[in-house]
Write a structure and sequence with these properties.
Blueprint: H1 4-11, E1 20-21, H2 29-36, E2 44-52, E3 58-66, E4 70-71, H3 73-80, E5 83-86, H4 89-96, E6 113-117, E7 126-132, E8 135-139, H5 141-148, E9 151-153, E10 156-157
Parallel strand pairs: 3-6, 6-9
Antiparallel strand pairs: 1-8, 2-3, 2-5, 4-10, 7-8
Length: about 160
């Protein structure tokens, strides 16, 4: 089976993405910012939740949030019209194909509804995981919105 970074490269081969392998872990936003040499806010946290709809239908939900923000669960629930639960590691892996700490914003195993923190637009370039806790890639935030088909919303809070 291919590694997370290999699967990411394959899934995004049609896009102008150039992942970089860091010598140190980028598992947390602070670690990623230190490794890349940018503000913590310019790190994209790919957070997987479960949206539980009124009919009890459960679907994975990806929130792309600035590294210096937390996802506002109440706002996220209002945006998607469902109750929000945290996803466990198995759900994250099943939905995205990646492990927590290396989940990229795109290139997933399944189609995952995505909501993008509007606060990411304050940066010219943001950095996201590229399939592992050591691999990242730069992109303009607007590119991430386009590539993910994500919905822009004010879901980040400090």
């Amino acid at each position: 089976m291919a590694s997370g970074p290999e699967r990411f490269l394959s899934a995004t081969a049609h896009l102008p993405i150039t992942p970089r392998r860091m010598p140190d872990s980028t598992h947390t936003a602070a670690e990623a910012a230190a490794a890349v040499g940018c503000e913590v806010g310019a790190i994209v946290k790919s957070l997987v939740f479960v949206a539980v709809h009124a009919d009890d239908h459960r679907e994975p939900l990806l929130a792309l949030v600035c590294g210096d923000n937390r996802a506002d669960i109440d706002t996220l629930a209002a945006v998607v019209g469902a109750r929000i639960e945290k996803a466990d590691a198995n759900t994250v892996k099943k939905a995205t194909g990646y492990s927590i700490g290396g989940v990229p914003p795109l290139g997933h195993a399944t189609s995952v509804r995505t909501v993008v923190d509007r606060d990411l637009l304050r940066f010219e370039t943001v950095w996201s995981a590229a399939g592992s806790a050591y691999d990242v890639f730069p992109a303009a935030p607007q590119q991430l919105v386009e590539w993910t088909g994500g919905e822009l919303a004010d879901i980040g809070t400090r």
